[in-house]
Every structure is written in C-alpha cells, then in structure tokens.
Amino acid sequence: MPEKPAMKKRKEWFFITPLKIQYTNEMEKALHGAHGIGYETYRHDCGKRIEVEKRREEEYVESKIVAENIGGVLSSGT
C-alpha cells in the first residue's frame, strides 16, 4: 500500500468563532454522512470543527494529487 504524501504544515493563525449559518436539510445530511456530526455540533464544538476541517484539508490535498496524476495521463495521450 503506497504511503500518504507528507502534508506541508501551515504556519497560519486563525480564530474560531461561533458560526452563524443557515443550512438546508441536504447540507445537514451531507455533513452527517461525511463526518458523522450535524451542523449544531459543528457550530458549537470547536474541537469537532477542527477535526472536520483537518479531514477536509487532507481530502483536498489527496484530490489535487489524483487530479494532477489524471491530468498527466490524459495529456500524454495514453
């Protein structure tokens, strides 16, 4: 099984504030399906929100790598 590429650590500071968002039933289902929590928990539990955002960041990096690999295969004509 191939190893995951090392993620670059960001040296950014950020503030976590309570979210004031309106969400649809579909958004609630998607968040719960992908991360196992609902928006109320996401809004109020900073620890859970950080876990979700870290997972989203990892998935984003992985998808960029896949897209780059697919792009290279498609552009090479194979």
UniProtKB/TrEMBL annotation:
Pfam family for this entry, one: YuzK
Domain of life: Bacteria
InterPro entries: YuzK
Protein name: Uncharacterized protein
